[in-house]
């Protein structure tokens, strides 16, 4: 439970590299996630070093050319519930405030969006993918796996930030990484967090358990 409570998105990283054997241990442990009939549909590409830099350049080039976002799937409905909309707005504003970006700073906000495509400076980026046309249930199983990865990283003293943002350029990722006929689910920035940076100390408010749990202990 301490590990779960400790996990939150990190958006600033030290230059310290992450040893491959640590990442292997994390991914091996994460593979114990449940899946229907033990199908284990998740797949992940891990990029670091020069490969990480090359992928960041590809994504930033798409952004700089104002290529319209074209993710493989929607991660939110067209109209959000008022409570979810409020939480999203507060979390987004909190990150910008922590980074010292004013509401009317258009240049700063654009740079903030671009930072996502540089993986917030993390030395490792993971790209999670599924077969093209994967059924909705596969996303549930991928979610189990990705959450295992994030929690295991915390247990190893590492931080991460899951990124739907990189999927805006899914076609570019497929071309660059050779992921033909694959559906790009998300990215994950991974590294040793720089805890001196205010943005890493920003933790969005979490709902009270009473807000999302309903108890039934008697038959209707």
UniProtKB/TrEMBL annotation:
Source domain of life: Bacteria
Nitroreductase domain boundaries: 5-192
The UniProt record lists the keyword Oxidoreductase: yes
Sorted UniProt keywords: Flavoprotein, FMN, Oxidoreductase
Keyword Disulfide bond: no
Short name of any one Pfam family annotated for the protein: Nitroreductase
PANTHER family: IODOTYROSINE DEIODINASE 1, NADPH NITROREDUCTASE
Full protein name: Nitroreductase
Species of the source: Pendulispora brunnea
